[in-house]
Design goal:
heterodimer, A: alpha/beta, Rossmann fold, 11 helices, B: mainly alpha, MetI-like fold
Chain lengths: 267, 317
């Protein structure tokens, strides 16, 4: 691993949750990720930034094997080592469903299921075979509290999830992702479809959530990365340009390319 | 508004100029009016035909109901309009229609839904591209062919399993009718399922759901309104189907809900009378209008139900 950019500042005491190692990925013939390496620290927020098409979402979607859903996608070398199991998540004999049970995801556009608020959150528990009503009730309440949505919806849990506002829907999706106690939650530009007030509440939530879970977030918004992340990775054209402690990346980047992007001279 | 603005006189030349431009616009306007009128006529024609059909049915049925009281029509348990001791209980024909339709739907709805789920959620691109045309071919087979298939192929097979089965029966006709309806149910349901946005499926997979869980718990509920429309269309096809029943079910008015018996349906009775030698204007001939009106009211009821279901379950993604 060649991660040399002054990590000492933020790393002491932080444990590795996962490591991307020399990962290559193809969409058909298109080489979308080129020997990408980076660490993911436990109970920290790691942000992936870079211009459109740089591969940051592609990298994020490797973590929960989302690429397996479509034909033509290929993990072509290297992998993602998941700790403490010390297993390569992308190994062909690893069951993607099991990976997704431990690594959950929140999408760009809120995508609640056409079900009640309660059933939206209970979904990730039901797919795990949980049937006990009181246990489901407890876990749903806990997840909604965790997503700072409980106070707004506790008296209308049977209403359709789609009836909520955009920001509430996104918090519902966060509750859904939280309900099953995942170890990592992946956020794919979670605020790009939201207004500034809803965005602020999601950002606040993300910072609170790292007490419970490791967070990997893709964002177009550099201020957002600076505000909420502990580590930042800058990607360009499928390559990892620079990874480091967020403050360092934004104040004193090691590479000229990163500095150009961050100061808005490019991208 | 100030006085000076309104008091300013128009230049003398302006009046003529304006009228010239107006006449040009008016000529274009006439063309548009003609096109509009043609389009309106086309739309009005279909409405007119519908109204005319309803008018004829109601008028002729009115003549029928002058002779036969409505209560007899609804509650009599015999349908013998051609006998000396004539009875006009529509229930008899209705039972045949409902029984054969129920058999058909018991085949078409489960199979059609399963096929739709498979094609939409499980089949690969190639399988779908090959399977869909075949499915649609099934819907393009003339119903008379299905009728003979029921009579000469399926009934003998069923008779081996169930020796008491008469040569003409509602069961065999209903089963084959179900096969005929499968493509309609499957194709429309599949369209509805495929219209469910990928984002919802991804959300489900990302929670660790399997394909089957995603298909049954997310895609199907999201496609409810489209699937309901598909079922309603299937029901309408079953209720309105004529040839299969005329050929294979026996055209024998029989108040029964037992599919292993022969029976006449509203549609097969209409065929029988329309092709027979009953004089126009006789009460026997008049019965087909009352029967036709009953059929129309039934399909109308199903269409309204479908409309309500579409509104009730329409999903906002």
């Amino acid at each position: 691993m060649q991660i040399q950019t002054g990590l000492d500042a933020g790393v002491e005491g932080a444990l590795l949750k996962a490591e991307v190692r020399d990962l290559d990925f193809y969409y058909g013939a298109f080489h979308a990720l080129k020997r990408v390496s980076m660490p993911i620290y436990d109970h920290k927020v790691t942000a992936l930034i870079g211009p459109s098409g740089c591969g940051k979402s592609t990298l994020l979607r490797c973590f929960n094997r989302m690429h397996d859903l479509y034909p033509g996608n290929r993990y072509a070398g290297g992998g993602i080592v998941f700790h403490p199991d010390n297993t390569n998540l992308l190994a062909p004999d690893v069951d993607p469903i099991e990976v997704r049970m431990r690594i959950s995801m929140v999408f760009q556009k809120p995508n609640p299921f056409p079900k009640s608020i309660y059933e939206n959150v209970a979904y990730s528990l039901r797919v795990r075979g949980m049937r006990n009503k009181s246990e489901l009730d407890d876990r749903v309440e806990l997840a909604l509290k965790g997503a700072a949505l409980w106070n707004e919806v506790s008296n209308r849990l049977q209403e359709l999830g789609a009836n909520l506002s955009g920001g509430q829907q996104q918090r519902l999706c966060i509750a859904r992702a939280l309900a099953s106690d995942p170890e990592i939650i992946l956020f794919d530009e979670p605020t790009s479809a939201l207004d500034p007030i809803a965005t602020a509440s999601i950002e606040e939530l993300v910072t609170e959530l790292k007490e419970k879970v490791t967070i990997l977030i893709v964002t177009h918004n550099m201020q957002q990365a600076a505000r909420i992340s502990d580590f930042t990775a800058y990607m360009y054209l499928g390559e990892m340009v620079e990874f480091g402690v967020t403050d360092q990346i934004f104040i004193k980047p090691q590479k000229k390319a990163t500095e150009d992007y961050i100061t808005g001279r490019f991208g | 508004m100030t006085a000076s603005a309104s008091a300013r006189p128009l230049p003398a030349t302006v009046g003529h100029g304006i009228s010239e431009r107006l006449s040009k616009k008016a000529s274009r306007h006439v063309k548009e009016r003609i096109i509009e009128a043609v389009l309106f006529a086309a739309a009005a024609f279909s409405v007119f035909v519908t109204v005319a059909i309803v008018y004829v049915l109601v008028k002729e049925s009115w003549v029928f109901f002058q002779t036969v009281p409505l209560t007899d029509f609804l509650f009599d348990t015999q349908w013998t309009p051609l006998f000396d001791d004539a009875h006009y209980g529509i229930m008899v024909l209705l039972s045949g229609t409902l029984t054969s339709s129920a058999v058909a739907l018991l085949v078409a709805i489960p199979l059609g839904t399963i096929i739709a789920l498979y094609l939409s959620e499980f089949a690969g691109f190639k399988v779908r591209e090959i399977a869909k045309p075949f499915l649609e071919l099934l819907g393009g087979v003339p119903t008379i062919v299905y009728g003979y298939f029921a009579l000469t192929f399926l009934t003998p097979i069923l008779q081996k399993i169930y020796p008491d089965l008469p040569g003409f029966n509602l069961l065999s006709a209903g089963l084959v009718m179900g096969i005929m309806i499968i493509p309609y149910v499957a194709s429309l349901s599949e369209d509805a399922m495929r219209a469910v946005p990928m984002a919802l499926r991804e959300g489900s997979y990302a929670m660790g759901a399997t394909r089957l869980q995603t298909a049954l718990w997310v895609v199907t509920p999201a496609a409810t309104s489209g699937i309901a429309s598909a079922y309603i269309l299937g029901i309408s096809r079953a209720v309105g189907e004529t040839m299969i029943l005329a050929v294979a079910a026996g055209m024998q008015p029989n108040l029964t809900f037992n599919p292993t018996e022969p029976g006449a349906t509203i549609t097969s009775y209409i065929v029988q009378v329309a092709l027979g030698d009953l004089p126009h204007g006789s009460i026997g001939y008049q019965t087909i209008f009352a029967a036709g009106l009953t059929l129309l009211l039934m399909t109308l009821a199903f269409n309204l139900l479908g409309y309500w279901l579409r509104k009730r379950f329409r999903e906002v993604y």
